[in-house]
Amino acid sequence: MTESREPNTEQQEEWQPKIIGFLCKWCSYAGADLAGGSRIPYPANIRIIRVPCSGRVNPLFVLKCLENGADGVLVSGCHPGDCHYSEGNYYARRKFAVFKKLLEYLGVDPRRFQVSWVSAAEGEKWAEIVKTVVEEVRAAGPNKQLSAPVDKCSGAPVKRKHLKND
Amino acid sequence: MIKRLQEKVGKLLREKKVALVIGYEMAGDGISTTPCFIEREDEVERLVWNEHCVYNLSRYLIETRELASSPSPKIGVVAKGCDVKSIIGLIQENQIKRDEVVIIGMECEGQFDVEGERQFKVEGLKLKDKDKDKDKEGKLLEKCKACEVHIPKVYDLLIKDDRNSGAPEPQSPEVNAYAQVEELEGKSQEERWQYWKKEFARCIKCYACRQVCPLCFCPQCIADQTLPQWISPSPSLKGNTTWNIVRAFHLAGRCIDCGECERACPMKIPLRKINKKLGKEIKEMFDYEAGLDSEAKPPLADFKLEDPEEFIR
Predict the structure, then answer these.
(1) What is the tens place of the pLDDT at every residue in B231-241?
(2) Which positions ≥6 away from B86 have C-beta within 8 Å?
């Protein structure tokens, strides 16, 4: 199956949001595992990447996901106080608070970047969060803002065009 | 003021208190200034001081720090109030040591927009004395209008302005430093995106903003990394937005608003508007301002249990 990196505009109803989840290995990843183990259904639109801690997630990862065609990014870690490394999620919290404000200021749809705390016991909560995030990103539509413009024929990045009024 | 600056620098060099002084000299156009490096006492006459000393010379402290770390000699640097903030930032982040730098603080009334001035001269317009003050308001750099540090907070030597014989000016400006940021905040999300999209589309990835930034001192910048390649080097729009967002984010809570990135940008992307926004948010959320205390912990390397988290699910 070949998958076009470009949002399919002709068949709008078939478009499915693609979401990348960065999950902390100690809590959220185990929470997602519990959701799976307990057979709690949740949308398959999320692709999970396991990270040692939510503090490991560099805002650059989020940007790269969006640039490379993801429609949304969800970062999930342990609740404050539960971090395996004691304080990683506290640093993450500050970092993402600032990052979210920055994206908002630049006019990036705030629904495309989300953060959650999910513990290893919260399989239900994980399923709920994925449902909500998928619905929100679906409402936001295909990511045309940050994903790099791609040439329709070759798939290569579009060459710089002369911009008027500049 | 220039005379006293030259005398003091001459004295520092004569007494071997410093090995090198970084200052300003007249540029070839006879209007603007250019950074200069003074190593001998007989060179001090090159040093000047005027309204065109816009450059933040603390950038050179990173490049000259090897020189400073040898036993006795130090580096002297001519610094305005805003430049001293970035020196504080460098000390705070362990890039230089306080005792390796001699800060020659300048009392600064504000700097002019060099390009505006050059145009003025080229067009052959002359200023009348009575218009001078009025004109100054118009040409003053945006950052200087809301300046709070006409006299540097930290210095080893202070060169005072002769024109101010009386008490120093009140340090509280009436100008709203965040006016431009607030204007943009008032717009809708789509309007903001269209604005920045257009601005970022002009970026040519020359990285002048990084080269000129006094606080961009990473030995290898993420923009230069090839494995993984974070920022596309291709001459396309790809990576422009990512680079500009990341550059701004890496300065969150560190930027001291010297405005050098925006000045150096050949495409005139309003980078200060992003830096200012981050400064504003950090002040509101974490009650921290960059460049004031070299002992303070940088805000993103610190946390409080009660930090805001209403955005987290």
Answers:
(1) 988 877 788 99
(2) B56, B58, B59, B214, B215, B256, B258, B291
